[in-house]
Hints:
It contains 12 helices and 10 strands. The protein is of the alpha/beta class.
Amino acid sequence: MTAPRSFADALRARPLLFEPVPPALRASAARAARYTEQLLGLLREIPRLDALIVPELVDENHEGRPFYRSGDPRDFARALSVAADRDVVVNKVVAHLPTEDAVDAWTRETLERTIRHVVLVGGSSRYIPYPGPPVIEANRRSGPLLASSGGLLGNISIPQRTGESHRMLAKTKAGAAFFTTQILFDSEAIVKVLREYERRCREAETPPAAVLLSFAPLTEETDSEFVRWLGADIPERVERSILDGEEVDAGARSVANALRVWEEVLAGYAPGDVPVPLGVNVEQISQRHLAAAVDMLSAFAAVIDRNAPAETRTRAG
C-alpha cells in the first residue's frame, strides 16, 4: 500500500473508506489471525484506500440490553492500523454506556490506544430509555477530548428518516466532522437530504460535515433480509435486479448498482455555495462477503476521483 494521507485531509478530498467485519467474539486466535491476514492481503491491492472503520457488532433484546457479537472494536482497529498503515475509525453505541460520564472514560481509553477518530451511535429504538446519553450530548463530551489529540468525531445519517437534515445540522454543531450513511441502494433520499443539509448549514453559517455514502454487496436472498433488519431501505426493483439471475453474478450486479447510485448522487445533488464534501464507505456485512466487498471497494477506487472539484483532485494526488 502506498503512503497514506491523513484522515482529516481525506475528508475534504473524496475519502474512500472500508468497513470490515471484525472477528467474532468467540473465534479462536488462529481463525481470527487467518481472517485478518486474508483481509489485509486484499486491501494491499487498493492503494487509494484512505481509512478503515471498525463497527461495534451489538444486538439488543426487547429491553434494549446489549449482546455483543464481537470483541472490543478498538483491539481489531489498532491491529489493522499498524498492519495496513492507515488511519482507523471505531464505532461506539453510546446508548449502552452506563452513564454520561462513561463517555468521557471511553474516549480517554480510546485515545490511550492511539485511536483518534470515532463514530458515536445511538440506540436502535427511540422508545427505550437507554442508560447512556443521546448522541448529541455524547458528541459534546467526546468531541473536545478527541480534538485535543487531533481526532475527529463522526455520526450516522439515515437518509430515509424524517427530519434527518435537521438532526445532521444539530450533530454538526455539537462537533460531528463527518457522517456515514445507512447502506444505500438508491439515490432519491440521500440527494434530498444533501440538498436540505447544505441549505440548513448555509442558513446557520455552519460549515457542513463530510458525508460518506455507504454501500455493501448482496450475494443471496438472505442478505437483503439482513440489511433491512439493519435499517436499510431496498426498493423491490433494485433487490430483484441484483438477486434475480445467477447467484455468482449477484456481487457484480451489486457493484454496478452502487456505482450507478454514486453517479446519480453526484449528478442530482448539484452543490451550491456551501458544498457538502462527499466520499464513499464500503461495508462488509459478514465475513463471507469479504471478497465481494473488496471487489466493490476496488471498483470505487477506480472511479471516485472522476469529475471531482479541482482542489479535490489536487489534494488527492
